[in-house]
């Protein structure tokens, strides 16, 4: 099953990240507030709650990258098309009283 393979890969990657961080499971448990048993279960590919998973990410300073998994739908190309304003022609500026008329420079 593809979902299980991706989940197992995620568990393994988080485990390797924790090891290179470097933190033990008990250090991570203390820092995150998640039990050592839950961390061990997760690293072995078993399910844990989403809230515990997010706590682990926060403890490993990975929580800011979590939001990148789901794209912001307001920033799709169609979002910018809806916000587009119609182009307007530039207005002609009139020569105001007291200002000198334009000259090319070769007039005498």
Give your account of this protein's structure.
The chain contains 6 helices and no strands. Helix 2 crosses helix 4. It has a domain of 68 residues: 434 Repressor (Amino-terminal Domain). Helix content is 52%, strand content 0%. It has 108 residues and is mostly helical.
CATH superfamily of the domain at 2-69: lambda repressor-like DNA-binding domains
- Rg is 30 Å
Helix content bin:
40-55%
Might you state the CATH topology name of the domain at 2-69? Answer: 434 Repressor (Amino-terminal Domain)
Alpha-carbon distance between the termini?
A: 87 Å
Mean pLDDT: 85
Strand content: under 5%
H/E element string? Answer: HHHHHH
Number of helices: 6
User: From the coordinates shown, what is the CATH architecture of the domain at 2-69?
Assistant: Orthogonal Bundle
Main sheet characteristics: none
- In CATH's first tier, which class of the domain at 2-69 applies? Mainly Alpha
Label the structural class: mainly alpha
* CA-based shape: elongated
Low-pLDDT runs of 5+ residues are: none
Number of strands: 0
Oligomer class: single chain
